[in-house]
Design goal:
The protein is α+β, with helices and mostly antiparallel strands. The longest helix is centred in the first third of the chain and has 18 residues.
Length: 217
C-alpha cells in the first residue's frame, strides 16, 4: 500500500491459539519463557483482596497498552490486544491437610503476559505514574518477571470453577495413557471469558499443569 508495509495487530486469540484456545480434550504442550506482570496473594478469591489484586494487574497492563495515545511510543511497540488473566493456584500447609477444599487457604500468583517490547525499565516508569493515579491499589506488590511453564498438559474447561475437578480427572487419565507424570501440585488457570459478563455454565478456562516423561520400568 503505497510502499508502506501494513503492521499486523498482535492478537492472542489469532496468533497464540495453541496457548490460549486448546480443545476440550487434553493435549501436551511446551510453553516457552515469557514476560509477565505478576502479583502474589492468598485467601478466598471471592473476597475484596483478590479483586484489587486483579485490578492492579489490569491497571498496569492497560497503562502500557495505551502509552502511544499519551504521546509515548516505546521502542519496538506493536499494536496488540491485552493478554488474558492467568493464575497459578496452590494451598497452604493447613489447606493441604483438609479433606475438602477450603478457599480461605488458597495461595495464588496472578499474572498477565506482556509483549516482547515491555522491559523492566518501562514497567518501572509506568508503575511510578500509575501509583500516583491509583494510590488505593496494591501496585507496589506487582512485579515484572519472566516465567516458563515448560512441558505441560492443558485442556479447555467449560463450566463453573467448582466443576474443575472433573476436567482434572480427565487430564490425569491422559497423563497415565501418555506415560506422563505431574511434577507439581500447583496448576495454572487462564481465564478466557470475563466472569462478570459470562454465566458460570458458559465460562471458559484453560487448565494447565506441569508434567514430565515418566521413567519406563
Amino acid at each position: 500500500m503505497n510502499g508502506v508495509e501494513r503492521k499486523v495487530k498482535l492478537e492472542w486469540r489469532k496468533h497464540f491459539k495453541n496457548l490460549y484456545l486448546p480443545p476440550q480434550i487434553p493435549v501436551k504442550i511446551h510453553v516457552p519463557p515469557m514476560n509477565y506482570l505478576t502479583i502474589e496473594g492468598k485467601g478466598n478469591p471471592n473476597q475484596e483482596g483478590f479483586r484489587t489484586d486483579v485490578e492492579a494487574l489490569y491497571t498496569l497492563s492497560y497503562s502500557i497498552r495505551m502509552l502511544p495515545k499519551k504521546g509515548v511510543t516505546p521502542e519496538g511497540f506493536v499494536e496488540y490486544t491485552v493478554f488474558p488473566l492467568e493464575g497459578i493456584w496452590d494451598l497452604d500447609e493447613e489447606g493441604r491437610k483438609m479433606k475438602e477444599l477450603n478457599k480461605d487457604h488458597l495461595i495464588y500468583k496472578l499474572m498477565i503476559r506482556q509483549p516482547e517490547f515491555v522491559t523492566e525499565d518501562l514497567f518501572q516508569k509506568v508503575l511510578e505514574t500509575s501509583r500516583k493515579k491509583k494510590p488505593d491499589l496494591p501496585l507496589e506488590r506487582v512485579k515484572f518477571e519472566t516465567w516458563e511453564d515448560g512441558l505441560c498438559v492443558q485442556m479447555m474447561h467449560v463450566g463453573s470453577y467448582d466443576e474443575e475437578p472433573k476436567t482434572f480427572r480427565v487430564m490425569e487419565q491422559f497423563c497415565k495413557d501418555e506415560n506422563l507424570v505431574r511434577t507439581d501440585l500447583t496448576h495454572k488457570e487462564i481465564y478466557i471469558t470475563d466472569p462478570r459478563k459470562t454465566s458460570p455454565e458458559n465460562a471458559k478456562t484453560v487448565l494447565r499443569f506441569q508434567v514430565a516423561e515418566a521413567k519406563r520400568t
